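Protein 1 of 2
SEQ + STRUCT:
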Amino acid sequence: MTQAIGYAAKDAQSPLAPFHFERRDLRDEDVAIEILYCGVCHSDLHQARNDWHSSMYPLVPGHEIVGTVTAVGPKVSKMAVGQKVAVGCMVDSCLSCDQCDRGMEQMCRKGATMTYNGKDRQTGDLTFGGYSDHIVVREEFVLTVPDSLDMERAAPLLCAGITTWSPLREWKVGPGSRVGVIGLGGLGHMAVKLAAGLGADVTVITTSPEKEADALKLGANRVLLSKDPEAMKKGRSSFDLIIDTVPVAHDIQPYLPLLDVESTLVLVGAIDMLPSFHSGHILGGRRRIAGSPIGGIAETQELLDFCAEKNILPECETIAIQDINGAYERMERSDVKYRFVIDLASLSADR
């Protein structure tokens, strides 16, 4: 075992605080990683506060991890000491079911092992995430970070990036595609950048007119104000794909008429009960409402390589780990553009 330090929530009411724990010794197929940066995801906040009623404490959040390899197990063949690597939302799966076989480990029939708030498949021990100094991960779930990617800004690609990349790929977005993005937060701004990078015509759909300048700067072609009835009327049948990144329960009915025939609105943000909608909006044009989680490992590597090629990176604000509770408060106020990233060198102050 190796001694680790991180920040953990001890229960749903407590702020995150320094936490000493142990990481397992390397198994034959394991990679040990020194964590340099970790993104702060809205789901970290939900899990720390048990909003989804599934949190296990103590809870060390963090599933947008970048760092360098410090050691490898004897059967590791693709990773080497000193290599720049990344870890996303998963650290294991059964690797033998039909979903794992097709590279969709996030939908493993036996359940993927989450980077934190999960249970180790062999020992049943709690998994602890990237708000820590190092981590041990099975080789198959370790990704390569291209040299041209800025390590500090790359971290949010491991969740915010792949969560929006996966539906763009599933629905074959490319030049000529008409993509709408609802919301312009951590997920939304990545959806805009990635869709634009794929050559799509991109519209940000928002209630806030003051977001227009940012949307255009990020790569959108235009903004559609959803509180403007006339603009929404003119926007009917305008989109092949709408990515809904709103992270809380909301009414999707106003957006359904914006879909063209046989087009799709895909939910990637809200994990909640949503208000009902009139089925006529989807029956008439064979329109679809879908959901999409994170992507698989191969798809995530594809994303990292694409972002390196196109020089696409999240917009980030770097913080010290000691500022994480304040960052959570700011996230609740939507006071961040657009993603917090923790510099884990700051952990040295708590050793």
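Protein 2 of 2
SEQ + STRUCT:
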Amino acid sequence: MQPGPRREIPLIHLLPNAMTLGAICAGVSAIRMAYSGDFERSVALLILAALLDGLDGRIARILKSESLMGAELDSLADVVNFGVAPAVVLYFWAMDGDQTLGWIAALVYVVCCTLRLARFNVGAKEGTLDKRFFTGVPAPAGAMLALAPLFLAQAAPQITIHPTPVAIWIAIVGCLMISRLPTLSLKLRVPARHARPLLLVVAGGAAALAAYPWAALLGADILYMLSIPFASFARRRIAH
């Protein structure tokens, strides 16, 4: 019996999965950098992982190379990059001296992130997701919120950060991820007249990130927290 023809795929169709694997490498490397005490590079790697996470799915759709394997890889990468990595980075940074409470808080955060991702995957498969809003804080945003104490310490070195508030904070962020609160999605439509002001805000944010990275990251976290009540109001308004 003659074997069937071998299936070939364009090399460029491997790019999205390669980006996802690169994001995993960035997240795991962030843990290594945190263990070495290099928290600036650790945060930079987590931001890189978030950027790759935001691009891999979009590129897969552009190339029409979506696959079940890619979807599973993306979900596993999110657990590593936005669940395990931020919790371990914060543990090494602030909570290593408070091992019991700090480690419990880190585990609570990781478990909440995992549950949030599982809920999202189930909703995606069942087609019950509201694409205009997320339910609970999404994993990448949760990771950036969890790192807010580190951003604050770097932006204002004169402030002393104690382990216990950090532990409480990341547990709160974990609860926000598994909550039923609506949060903004980039797929939410805005009036065309607001497009230019929004682009100016994005450009200003990018400039601030380049000039004052820690203050800009902390400011982004504050703005995101303020957006949560707005998302609840917007969702109720759309529903009526």
